[in-house]
Amino acid sequence: MKKAFCAMTAALMFISAAPANLIASADAEEKIKPVFQYFNPADVNGSVVIVLPEEIHATAEITFDSPEGIDEPYYRAELAANGTYSFAIEGRDTTDDGDFRDYNLKITAVGGEFSDQTAIYIDKFNVPDKNDNPDSFAELRYIFKVDDVVSKSDWDVSTDETGAKVVSLHNNSFMYGDVNDSKSVNSSDASDVLAEYSSRATSGESILTEKRRKAADVNGDSKVDSKDASDILAYYSALSTGDTPKWKVELMKEEEK
Questions:
Q1: Residues 6+ away with beta carbon under 8 Å from 157
Q2: Domain residue spans in the chain?
Q3: Is the dihedral of CA 97, 124, 136, 13 positive or negative?
Q4: Cα torsion for 7, 12, 16, 20, to the nearest 10°?
Q5: Edge-to-edge strands of the sheet including 44-51?
Q6: Tell me: the pLDDT tens digits for 131-187?
Q7: Helix (H, G, I), strand (E, B) or coil at 94
Q8: pTM here?
């Protein structure tokens, strides 16, 4: 049996998760408890460190693929905003030795300017240990930030001077007129505006998210109605003929400067 399954009685020297598995934010690193029942602290040869800004909270999940199984649950925790969290990782040999682990990291981040905005970041990593001993230690650090970049991707990644991955989540991004978040403006967006207007008029309920409502208010009057739909159609028509139109809300902001 693999060494990972021989450590059922090994003591886990980690701080337990708070009630409801929500870790309180703090300046110091919070050590997260693994959910993998055969976790062996003696095999730890690395760590994953997650740094969250004050704008977002997140769900962190780590699984692994190996001869022991596929998508094996390893960690799962709810992470509060403005905190730094550490996940101890067991090292494993290379695939040539038949004793490997391919770890999968999934961070589901919620928040930013729009409280209901969600972005999912996924990465894969390995922590090799050729000698089966923790004679070296690898730290993988992920620093999350929130910006307003409009992109087809929910996030972009760069590397800072320390080698840490800086994950820029575009949770604050939106484009006026792009009500359905398709990264373009067309008649479908106008239809969504009219559907929102009808729903609010008949039931008082909104069918758009906070972000989509802001994108729909193209005339800047803090309402989503047929006037916005008409402006979106006019904007789309101008684009189709090669013009470079501007929204009323954008012109208003330029006048304020």
A1: 165, 166, 167, 168
A2: 3-169, 187-256
A3: negative
A4: 0
A5: 29-31, 84-90, 44-51, 138-146, 165-169, 155-159
A6: 655 567 889 999 999 999 988 899 999 999 999 999 999 999 999 999 998 989 999
A7: coil
A8: 0.79
